[in-house]
Amino acid sequence: MMKDMMRRNIVWRLFFLQNSRNSRILDGLAFFHILLPFFRRISDDKGQLDEIVERHIDYFNSNPIFAPYIAGVVMNLESRMRAGEKIDPERIYRVKNVLSSALTAKGDYFFEIALMPFALTIGCVFAIYSSYIGPMIFLVFYNLYHLKLRIGGYRIGLLLGEDGGGELATTFFGSQKLLGGLGAFVSGVFAALVFARAWSFGGSPFLLWGIAAVPAMYLLRGKVNILWAVLMLFLAAAGFLMIV
Amino acid sequence: MNPFLTVSVLGGLLALDLRSSIRIMVSQPICGGLLTGLILGSPAEGFFAGALFQIIFLGHIDMRGNGILDLPVGGVTASALYILTLRRFSGDPSVNGFVLSCSILFGILAAGAGQAFYVWWEDASVVLVLRAVRYVKEGRYRLASAIHLSFLAIHFLYAFLFLIAAVPLGRFLISAAAFHLPGFLSGTLGQLYLLVPFIGIGSLLRLYTARSKVFWFASGFLLTTMALVVLG
Fold it and tell me: Do B218 and A188 make contact, defined as CB atoms within 8 angstroms?
């Protein structure tokens, strides 16, 4: 019962991983905060607690949605060490760092490049037709992966430790390629619908305007950040419209 | 309740979703715009402005180390300005495009301002975090945890204070511009929002020009075009 409460307490804390993000130890303070109830539980006395905490208040940087898996692995290893298994604290430290580096890159790619553009573009396809279903579909689709990975990843880490990486990879990264392809397909659908609406809205002049804007944005995005790219395009379009 | 206050509270709550990494993504402008519209009593307008603002950033990826764009605050700014300024003109369709274009521009500036603030804050907060680390080493764990959790207030307050200042100011500036700018100028600027969906496509294309993706993009485009032609 107490154990379940402690685990639930940790799940809740996992949702605030980047709360105290800073340029020195990034999410190190948050990682300590997440695992504090666990450290309290496995320590026999204050001296032992201080020793464990000392090892974990350090630099930590990971994708926030994959971080629960790392927290689970650390808990698994620490528990086994307390139970008498021969595990070097240095190994726990190393596992934590290696996993956080690897999963940062993997997680950012999965969520930022594969899942988000796909789910958001579906939402925007519905928005073209002023349908409120768009945001709902986006939220359901995104959170299906997000919550499954956050809570499921934590459980996998907790139960299987370092060996859970394979299961995590099979469960999630297997769909990465598919999501990327679907994202590209839905973006194509979105582009066609925008051009069709532009045609019915303003005919060929408007369509040509759009045809000019797409490559301009594509090229500008390669050179400057998105805010400047949009402002430059707006400025160029305003200038063009005033001259014409 | 004062609409500026309501919108600012909403913006503060949505900022928590992104900044504290709750990340259920209600903070994305497509959802934030709809929520802004709902609390201001104009869901259709809020959704429209939020969705347009979202389309600009469809292909945008936040790079680690550069700070994350403040899309929650940007989306709420754009939607709230559109709704509240248009209300001042009693929904006059002749200023609709101008108000929408200006609202989106303000939203973009808000997103940039939030990004700049957090780049600064991640450096400035080091002092507090190091103090928390010191507390941990002294065994004062509750105090360290309290510092970590107190950052929630910073995320909420930044968005709240920004919105409570920027939305009334923005509404005043857009209204003044709509009143005083010559017709041809406001008419021209009023067409800029029409560019937004194409900006979104250009931005998405940057993601999908890899050889493995471009086939799927072209397939989606061609199949939809054919379907539209066949179905009329």
Answer: yes
Residue boundaries of the structural domains of chain A:
62-243
Residues of chain A contacting residue B195, judged by C-beta atoms under 8 Å apart: 209-210, 213, 233-234, 237
DSSP secondary structure letter of residue A23: T
pTM score of the predicted model: 0.94
- Please state, in angstroms and as integers, the Cα–Cα distance from residue B143 to each residue in A5, A35, B16, B138, following that order: 22, 15, 21, 10
> How high is the pLDDT of residue A209?
84
pLDDT at B194: 92
Answer for the pair B72, B14: CB distance below 8 angstroms, yes or no. yes
Inspect the interface and report whether the beta carbons of A20 and B132 lie closer than 8 Å.
yes
**Reported ipTM:** 0.93
Q: Which residue has the tokens 């945008």?
A: B60
Q: Which residue does chain B place closest to A122, by CA atoms?
A: B58
Mean per-residue pLDDT, B201-205? 93
Q: Is B18 left (phi over 0), alpha (psi -120 to 50) or beta?
A: alpha
**Would you place residue B65 in the very low, low, confident or very high pLDDT band (cuts 50, 70, 90)?**
low
